[in-house]
Amino acid sequence: xxxxxxxxxxxxxxxxxxxxxxxxxxxxxxxxxxxxxxxxxxxxxxxxxxxxxxxxxxxxxxxxxxxxxxxxxxxxxxxxxxxxxxxxxxxxxxxxxxxxxxxxxxxxxxxxxxxxxxxxxxxxxxxxxxxxxxxxxxxxxxxxxxxxxxxxxxxxxxxxxxxxxxxxxxxxxxxxxxxxxxxxxxx
Length: 187
Prior knowledge:
The chain is of the alpha+beta class. The chain has helices spanning about 1-15, 65-70, 90-100, 105-125, 160-170, 180-185; strands at about 20, 25, 30, 35-45, 50-60, 75-80, 85, 125-130, 135-140, 145-150, 150-155. It has a seven-stranded antiparallel sheet. A two-stranded antiparallel sheet has the order 1-2. Strand 4 (about 35-45) and strand 5 form a beta hairpin. Helix 3 (about 90-100) packs antiparallel against helix 4 and helix 3 packs across helix 5. The longest helix has 21 residues, at about 105-125. The radius of gyration is 17 Å and the shape is globular. Residues about 1-15 have low confidence and may be disordered.
């Protein structure tokens, strides 16, 4: 009986402890504004044989499909922990490529001014350095807010459509990495 109880306690503690991705600890809960968000899923972005970043998706409640995530109201967070240095231009271009892959040409063109706003914030950083924590938050009252090491950078970028476009980079019909999409959707 004691063994069963010990195993159950261990499993409960492990389930409540979040995720570990490539040595990066992602908490099981996170606050964005006044809202408590839960870790929907976490994974590793790889490029060739390089580990680029660990990423976690935080939502008000878990969602197992792209539609369930995109349609969910309230704050959201994409938490990125850099595992290697990536220049600001390369980081921004990768986001733009992901948006173009998941939208029609005219939709992607419509997002270009806001991608440039995000690119300008990245340009101020010069590069996403190894170990840097970057969050892309959806704050309904403000817009998309880029957080770097816990501090807001730049001005919020307007429009829920833009945040949904960012999410589609990882969980859209043509995600940047198939196994990463599955991981972020809790698979």
